[in-house]
Each structure stands twice: as C-alpha cells, then as structure tokens.
Amino acid sequence: MEIDWLGAVLALVAGMVVAMAWYSKRGFGLVWWRLTGITPEQSKQASPRNLVQLLVANGVTAVGLAAAVGTTAKATGDDGVWLALLVGLVAWLAFSASTLLQHNAFELKPPKLTLINSSYQLVLFLAMSLVIGLL
What does each C-alpha distance from 128 to 55, 87, 101, 134 come to in angstroms? Predict the structure, then answer.
C-alpha cells in the first residue's frame, strides 16, 4: 500500500483549516448553531475536547485518503490531481454522505443541517485529496 505521509500530514492541516472556516461565524457556524440548538457558549466550553476529536478524525481521514489515492494511482498508473479528486469524491459519496444521510434521516435532523454537514465533508475530502494529489 502506498501512503504519502507528507501528503497525509499536509492534508490534515488543510482539513483543519476547512473545518475552522466552514463552522466559523463567517462560514456556516451561525446557521449550524441555530439548527443544532447548540449555543456559541456551549461550543466554546466543549472546544478543547472537540478539537482533539477533530484532529484525530481528520488524521484518520487524511491517512485513509492518502492510502486510497496511492493505491489507486499505483493500480491505474495515473498519479494526477484529477484522479486524487475522483478518489476523494467517491470516498465521500460511498462513506461519508451515505452514512450522514441515513443517520440524520432516522434522527429527524433538519435537511438543511444534513446539507451543511455533508457539504462540509465533501469540501474536506476534496481539499485533502487535492493536497495529496498535488504532491
């Protein structure tokens, strides 16, 4: 299995930037707070623990995408950026979007919240895959 470890680390950094921007007040943070019923104050209290969880989760995602891109590149003989982005898109669709959609549907979450969170995951997977593909 081919894993570009530098790519995975840089993808992790890109993923953290995407997360911070996406759920910021300038991003979708205000809408997300309203839809979840979580207040900004509650978010601040949970912040240290949640940031560690985010770091671990994004680290696993970055390594997984690096492995998937590396394996796909080796299997196809193509190590281009477009292939990396395709791997990210397929991974998002097969694992993230489908899982989030079914959980949110059964938990009766607002469709707008599902859209915000699923779109975040898409941007996250594509940003990470782009970084990996550029190396």
Answer: 13, 11, 22, 10
